[in-house]
User: What shape does this take?
Amino acid sequence: MAGRLAILAGRGALPGILAGAVSDAVHVTFSGIAVGVPAGTEHLPTSFERLGELFSGLAEKGVTDVVFAGSMSRPALDPSRFDATMHALAPRLMMAMGQGDDSLLRTVADVFEEKGFAVKGAHEILPDLLLARGSLIGPEPGKGDLDDATRAATVLDTLSPLDVGQAAVVAGGMVMGIETIQGTDAMLRFVGNTPAALWRKRGVLVKQPKAGQDLRFDMPMVGPATLRNAAAAGIGGVVVAAQKVLVLDQPAIRQITQDNGIFLLAR
Assistant: This one.
């Protein structure tokens, strides 16, 4: 990298993982989003209303690259606290908010690039978080599992233009759940609560990006909690898009697959 990296931190494990890999990174946190700051990491607190101050602070610290890491809910903005930069950007950002998450994230990334910062993907910093095609952790999936994975991927491909979600569960050819704004874990709880008479407690969870999704800042992710929740829901395996889904804490995932007889496959 030409200069320092700033981690724009949301919720989840990814910001801490990146901070552990890049020792001189600046950890940026936003008011209203409760996230921890790893010990020994330089911290820059800010708010969405003060983007001008954020850009100046990053430049002063020698930051040239930024990475969006972790989940962020849409902020409740207080116009009375806007700095001059945010006043100028607000109409553009508000328009993007009305066009879906992908449009909003693209617009925010465009703004950072216009201010001279290079927007990086987490996978560019830690390529080992991606799995190559055919990578398998856990037991070998059966033909029925692969058929269910194909159907789930087809469902997600079909819904992709509607910007609905990045995950679906199919069991025995039946669609059991589709991820919406509540997220993957909520979908898995819903599937797990499905009456036993309606399904055979197997099937797969498929996670993949939407068509045209900018993987620098909105790459799908699975981690140990995903595997635990899938197993608890009665799902037999998780299938991710090869090289297009972040897989966190792979040693822990390997142990979970051994303990629960569940698989993780990159396809």
In short: The first helix runs from residue 14 to 21.
